[in-house]
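thread: overnight batch results

M.L. [08:02]
morning all. the overnight job finished for the chain we discussed friday. pasting input first so we're all looking at the same thing
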Amino acid sequence: MATAGAAAALTATLPVQSLNEGRASERTHCCRTRAAMTISIQRRISNVRSVEEERNQGLHSAHAYKASGNKVSRQSVLCGSQNIVLNGKTIVMNDCIIRGDLANVRVGRHCVIKSRSVIRPPFKKFSKGVAFFPLHIGDHVFIEEDCVVNAAQIGSYVHIGKNCVIGRRCVLKDCCKILDNTVLPPETVVPPFTVFSGCPGLFSGELPECTQDLMMDVTKSYYQKFLPLSQI
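M.L. [08:03]
and the structure it wrote out:
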């Protein structure tokens, strides 16, 4: 009889224990759900704040651009942004187009790409089709308005004037200058410390040995004094 009574008491307590365990698990699940919702809301609020800060600045910058100090206009077009690398403190102004969807585009530090310029990787025709090749731009490069750049490589400390066309697979060495309204034919090589001008672009002068220091001063001062239109 004692054994039967103990079994009955144990059977009576089992539902209560299982009910308590179920309630505890529900409470734990609710707490976890609330915590996850709180974290999600906080993230959304922080994202909204960051977007508002960017709008107030008049700039659109990805997180990597913020960390490296790049200033990219929201009115520019970056095609294939995963293939575009800006190494730091580079300015891309409004209505610029960078075609990273064709091939990798790498831009050095303290570069300036002014309004309505197009940066496009070079291509070469083969019997089986067309192939695009990466475009590398060095440090302290200044590209003026309304330029079309289809070069294979642009060295450091280079100045490209307004309304220039840099033909496909051109190579611009360090410390050179392209004057306004110049059209370089395809596969042109511009030596260091030279000036090219005209249509087609031909050698027209030489640059001083201090060109590197001059370009560093120009690009750094331009970056430090640069303000978007909303802050002027």
